[in-house]
Structure formats: C-alpha cells, structure tokens
Design brief:
By secondary structure, the chain is α+β, with helices and mostly antiparallel strands. The chain folds into three domains: 2-82, PGBD-like superfamily/PGBD (Muramoyl-pentapeptide Carboxypeptidase, domain 1, Orthogonal Bundle); 105-159, PGBD-like superfamily/PGBD (Muramoyl-pentapeptide Carboxypeptidase, domain 1); 173-298, 2-Layer Sandwich (Muramoyl-pentapeptide Carboxypeptidase, domain 2). It is built from ten helices and seven strands. The chain has a four-stranded antiparallel sheet. The protein has a three-stranded antiparallel sheet with strand order 1-2-3. β6 (285-286) and β7 (295-298) form a beta hairpin. The longest helix is centred in the C-terminal third of the chain and has 16 residues, at 199-214. It starts with a helix and ends with a strand. The structure holds zinc ion. Zinc ion (ZN) binds next to β5.
Length: 299
C-alpha cells in the first residue's frame, strides 16, 4: 500500500519536528525526544511527558556530548540527538566515558568491574544493551543517576566501594570464612588484582598464573574470597535476576577462599579457557560449575 506508506512517512516527518522542549512539555515531540534518548542508551520512559526523569536524561546526554547542560532541548541538543552515535573514544585512559555502542579495552575493563560486582555480563569489549542494563542496575543500586552512561561518578563506584572488602595488605591475613554453612577462620593471601584466596589456594594460583603468563595467557581474578556480606549481596542480585548464579550465603566456595572467578574473555572457546582446561589440574584447580567457564576451584 504505497499511498499509506507515503502518508505515514509524512506524519513521521511532521512528528520529527524539533521544537524547543523542557520539563513540563508534552506530546508527540516529547515522545520523539524520549525515543531518541532511549536509542542512545539513556533510561527514559516514552510517555510523551517531559518529567524530571527526562530532564535528568537530557542533562546526562548534554554532558556526554559536550553541550551546555541545562536540561532544555533546543536546536543544538536536537542536532546531537539526530546525529549518529559518536565513534568510541580510542583513548582517554582506562576510564573514559562509555555508553551504548562503545567498544574496546575500556569496555572490557568496565565489564570486568561489573562482573566483580556480581552483574551478569560477558567480557567482550562491546557495550551492548545487556551491558547498558547492568550499568543502569548498578547505578540504581549505588544511588547514582540512572542513565546507563559510565562517567566519572559511575567509574568511581565501580572501582571503589567494590564488592570485595578492603583486602589485607599482606598475605597470611586471618578472615572469617564459611565452609558448608559453618563459620571458619581462614588465612588468605593475595592473588593480584586486589583479590585474595585461602593461602594454599593462592600459592597454587600464583604459580599457575606465572606459568600461564609464560605461555602468553593472562590469568586475572575478578572475584576471589568473599565475605558473608559480599555473598549475600551477590545472592540477592541473583535472586533478582540481575546477577550470575550465586550460592546460598555460607555455602559458596568463594567464602572458603578456594574458588576464583577468572577473566575468561570469549568463554569456553577462548585460548584462556583452553589453557586452563589443559593445565589447571596440575595446580589443583577444576572448573566445577557448568556454564561458568570463569569459575575455578582449588581442590
Ligand atoms: Zn564463582
């Protein structure tokens, strides 16, 4: 029905008109604005009503695009809304501002941090909708503005106040662990990356890590020993459908200091996984949770 298509496309064009909008504006142009914000990864409801949440999203968008931040959608903001997503930053250090569509090493870093906080994302360097969802959940959980954009405030929360407790400064620290639901004092040592494992497991892991490095494989611990509070936090995320499978608090091998979640970009098919599969047994590590190529336990 070409005639109807033509009419529709005319209507779409007229809806796309770009009047100046601000909080309190209503109607089709606001819906259009909200759709565009959503398409750029900002968290708004498309309801044609320019409320505080839309204002917050507009402000975050303006900030992300280097515009004046006033929450008012004028010609400059419309122009950026109608432009293609910018190319991902090629530099900017480990913590550049990231949003839906970004790619590269900094996104890997982001995804590793999200996983360390218990969010279920793949570490693939591609900031897709699932990563955006995880970022929004994280922002909500931390009381940040929920816009799905990883700026300085979100990076600070991702890198600080981490799930893992402030680690003991040196090896051999005694901590309260849990094994099969029973509280138990265990001794933990560093496995790098600010993470810890039970000392015998840590020693074995560090030998394995050194040998892997000689084979060109980087073994990096995303989550090691967990306190009860950390396990409870991850378990809650799991129950809410926002995190990986997590054992009942008290019953995770992470709480006994014998399990580590490693960064295994690419999962089962990756060179990291294949190396582990071929070698980890020699150091006493087994991959003992089906569907989790990252979870290795010292037996
Ligand atoms: Zn695990």
């Amino acid at each position: 029905m070409p005639a109807i298509s033509a009419v529709r496309s005319t209507q779409t064009r007229s809806l796309s008109s770009t009047p100046t909008l601000r909080q309190g504006s209503r109607g089709a142009a606001v819906s259009q604005l909200q759709q565009k914000l959503k398409a750029k990864g900002f968290n708004v409801t498309v309801d044609g009503d320019f409320g505080p949440k839309t204002t917050a999203a507009v402000r975050a968008f303006q900030q992300s695009r280097g515009l004046g931040v006033d929450g008012v959608v004028g010609p400059n903001t419309w122009a950026k809304l109608n432009a293609a997503n910018p190319a991902p930053p090629s530099s900017g250090g480990a913590t550049p501002t990231l949003r839906l569509g970004a790619r590269g090493a900094a996104v890997n870093n982001l995804q590793n941090r999200l996983r360390a906080h218990g969010y279920n994302v793949s570490v693939d360097g591609d900031f897709g909708p699932r990563t955006a969802d995880a970022v929004r959940s994280f922002q909500r959980a931390k009381g940040l503005g929920v816009d799905g954009v990883v700026g300085p405030a979100t990076w600070a929360k991702l890198n600080g106040g981490a799930v893992n407790n402030p680690p003991p400064a040196t090896g051999g620290a005694r901590v309260n662990g849990y094994v099969n639901g029973q509280a138990r004092s265990i001794t933990v040592s560093s496995v790098g990356n600010g993470k810890f494992m039970r000392t015998d497991a840590a020693n074995a892991f560090n030998r394995m890590k050194a040998d892997a490095a000689r084979a060109g494989i980087n073994l990096s611990v995303v989550s090691g020993f967990r306190t009860m509070a950390e396990q409870q936090y991850l378990y809650n995320l799991y129950l809410q459908g926002r995190g990986n499978l997590a054992a009942r608090p008290g019953y995770s091998n992470h709480q006994g200091g014998t399990s580590a979640d490693l960064s295994v970009p690419g999962g089962y098919g990756s060179s990291t996984y294949r190396w582990l599969q071929n070698n980890a047994g020699r150091y006493g590590f087994v991959n003992d949770v089906r569907g989790e190529p990252w979870h290795w336990t010292f037996k």
